[in-house]
Amino acid sequence: MNPIINGACYIRVSTDEQAEYSPSAQKRAIFMYAKSHNINIAPCYIFSDEGVSGRNAEKRPAFQAMIKCARCKPSPFSVILVHKFDRFSRSREDSIVYKSLLKRECDIRVISVTEPVENDKFSIILEAFLEAMAEYYSVNLGEEVKKGMTEKAYRGGFQTRPPYGYNIIQSGRPPVINEAEANVIRMIFDMRSSQMTYRDIGDFLYQSNIKTRKGNLFTRKSISYILKNPIYCGYLTWNCGDEIIIRKSDEISPIITLELFTKVNPWFSTS
């Protein structure tokens, strides 16, 4: 019987991944592997990043905590188990850097419990291939998501968080007007169309004790954002690299008229 060794496990799932990659599914597979290979994983060495992309290791707090823990002297574990290599990283650069660090400084191996790789010369090629495929999938997914969002923009579809003046009542449904906030929006546009300065508008809102959704004062920046946002007249904009898409949206109920918006913003064109 092989001696018991201490290990850690790393779990990661992004917001758009399927149930098969859920934290519980990953943990279950990892612990089944650990049990059959005499690897003991203490609760304090279970690291999990949920709703986080695998493209940038620096932005994954649990991953960084695991690396910091691994570099302790002596290292508290000798292996790190992951469900798949792409859970560890979807960036080949990050994968190489961190795996080399773990191996060189800590003598710690990263093991995929669903992609068995032998510890020989061929495994170097196989593991690199698996990592390259993971990075290709990530890049391709990003391109497909952008393509889908661009197409939705051409159709005038809503795909961002609702700004001041609107609320999401039901997930997956278009925003609806928040009448209390909409009255403030109309007031701001009316004041600006009467040639009031941003400072005068801000002073009026302050004296009227009218604040933002987060309870902050209206600043020049927040007033400018409202006055220049065509969503309030029923139009959506989408920045697609070299092209700015402006489309009238059937999903958005306008708070002000197009005439009032163009009076305040003569530069705005729907053509």
Key words describing this protein structure:
271 residues, alpha/beta, Rossmann fold, Hect, E3 ligase catalytic domain fold, 2 domains, 4-stranded parallel β-sheet, two-stranded antiparallel sheet, 8 strands, 43% helix, 17% strand
Explain what the structure shows.
This protein has 271 residues and is an alpha/beta fold. The protein has 2 domains: 5-138, 3-Layer(aba) Sandwich (Rossmann fold); 155-264, Alpha-Beta Complex (Hect, E3 ligase catalytic domain fold), CATH 3.90.1750. It is 43% helix and 17% strand. The chain contains 9 helices and 8 strands. Helix 6 (179-193) packs across helix 9 (258-264). Mean pLDDT is 81; it is low at 148-157.
From the 3D structure, determine the CATH topology of the largest domain: Rossmann fold
Tell me, briefly, the overall form: elongated
Please identify the top-level CATH class of the largest domain.
Alpha Beta
End-to-end Cα distance, whole Å, is 75 Å
**The CATH superfamily title of the largest domain:** Resolvase, N-terminal catalytic domain
Structural class: alpha/beta
Low-confidence stretches: 148-157
Strand content: 15-25%
- In CATH, the architecture of the largest domain is 3-Layer(aba) Sandwich
Rg to the nearest angstrom? 26 Å
Oligomer: single chain
Mean pLDDT: 81
